[in-house]
Amino acid sequence: MSDPALPPLIEVIRRFGLEPRKSLGQNFLLDTRLTSKIARATGDLAGCHVVEIGPGPGGLTRALLQAGAARVVAVERDERCVAALGELALAYPGRLEIVAADALTIDATQLVPAPRRIIANLPYNIATPLLISWLRQAGAWSALGLMFQKEVAERLVARPRSKSYGRLSVLTQWLTAAETVFDIPPGAFLPAPKVTSTVVVLRPRPLPLAPADFATLERVTAAAFGQRRKMLRGSLKSLTVTPEALCAAAGVAPTARAEELGVEEFCALARQVGGSAPACG
Fold it and tell me: Per-domain residue ranges for the chain?
């Protein structure tokens, strides 16, 4: 079946009064070549159920449907955009559902059955907390194709001993294989942001890189990178009165700094802090 004829996105924006709102972190991507590229970044969508966050006027939503997604659930908190997306739902009967909600308040895994993916141009102001919430349920997703501010994207894939390596690097790489796939310049958006954007694909691992509890690993990485210039014997004092003993038990040098440790070493510290070694939190 061929795709329905749809009005240009700029016409939809004008008709529904969808001037992007800074308070909602809205930057609309109207280039159909780019939205199609994002939609296909995680691979073939045939038979997949996709959750999209912050669809705005529906540029990426259209691309997901045209790429063959079995069903798309679009989560949008802007009532103006919900109305515009309603027209798109009528054009693709039974394949697009709009959920009027704040993405930070919902369990995205409950929106669609497996196999499920998240593909979204994330609002920059909530991108990090959303990512962490999805990582907590990494095993529920077959893939995540997400657009971030380039600086944040670089953190997700950063290696130890690099400037960008930090808490997000550890949590992301512990649970997923992450790769940056392409950049999108500011001029592609309406309005143009002050930064370059980067699309990242995260593919959940069958098992985490090493046993650890999620919440404990968060605490350990927050402490270590919160004072990243300090040696661990100093930065980990918020976790224990005997940081050198903690490091010794984990097999980590107390004179090392956070940026020098690999994911497995942070997991070893988390196991010692938590006193147990579950496969994943």
Answer: 9-204, 214-274
